[in-house]
């Protein structure tokens, strides 16, 4: 079957839809994209919302020259078994699944298929994503450039050795959840002290956005920026003392190590 320049997104859940919408915002035409989705009502919803064709995994694997795998790690073995018979070495496979190694994917596909492993994150939905990409055994520069082109549609992209991907997953893949957790806690604190929820929410969200911008635009170390907020004998010093007493720094270290370990375990499952 003749190849087209189509990109197929296999598994259009949270992350698959995020990538799809980003590619469309970046100027890809709906005809250049295919998606697969096993629930009929979700398929209809996506077709109506984005104007892209929803096809079977086998059709996607037969038609598109780039296959982006965005199913849960646990669903990856079945998906690979389904598409392996139709994949050719001229196609590129880009996997966004946490924990799943390029070696695992290569071992279930025909010899020679180029596999790129990516760890994206959900701020890609607003074009502020952070993605890290790693090459599989059969990748050359052109495959990495192709993957960078896809991910750059929704934010920043860096290259990392694959052995760093579990740590990347723990930091930037899961990272937005930690920030939202902190935001939730700060809003709750505001409400606890009597602020209307909407006021607390506006104060916290703008503080997070402003702090992120300050980090990015000044390039200063976070410790320096924190010290500038911390007046001697003042309010911030009192708050930071509580955070240290409650071992919040150690809790972050443990939490992020747990995410890294879970990423490693997903590969073994
Ligand atoms: N969410 C995130 O922040 C991030 C996710 N990832 C990775 O992205 C992947 C997807 O995660 P996420 O989007 O959160 O999960 P979701 O459950 O939202 O999406 C997975 C989608 O794949 C569909 N699916 C499962 N099996 C098949 C199949 N055989 N054929 C077609 N579609 C299938 C599921 O359908 P159904 O609903 O019927 O189960 C679902 O719509 C994971 O591997 C995860 O590690 C990576 C970085 C960040
Ligand atoms: O929680 C997860 O497993 C996925 C991978 C990184 C973010 N979400």
Outline of this structure?
This protein has about 270 residues and is of the alpha/beta class. About 55% of the residues lie in helices and about 15% in strands. NADPH dihydro-nicotinamide-adenine-dinucleotide phosphate (NDP) binds near residues 13, 78, 79, 97 and 173.
Enumerate the spans where pLDDT stays under 50 for 5 or more consecutive residues.
none
User: Percent of residues in helical segments?
Assistant: 40-55%
Describe the strand arrangement of the main beta sheet, using strand numbers. Answer: 3-2-1-4-5-6-7-8
Name of the CATH architecture of the largest domain: 3-Layer(aba) Sandwich
Number of domains: 2
The number of strands is 8
Give me the number of helical elements. 12
Structural class: alpha/beta
Order of helices and strands: EHEHEHEHEHEEHEHHHHHH
β content, as a range? Answer: 5-15%
Task: Based on Cα principal axes, name the global outline.
Answer: elongated
CATH fold group of the largest domain: Rossmann fold
- What is the terminal-to-terminal distance? 35 Å
The distinct bound ligands, ions and cofactors come out as: NADPH dihydro-nicotinamide-adenine-dinucleotide phosphate, (2S)-3,4-dihydro-2H-pyrrole-2-carboxylic acid
The biggest beta sheet reads: 8 strands, mixed
Question: Gyration radius, to the nearest Å?
Answer: 21 Å
Per CATH, the superfamily of the largest domain is: NAD(P)-binding Rossmann-like Domain
The average pLDDT is 96
CATH class designation of the largest domain: Alpha Beta
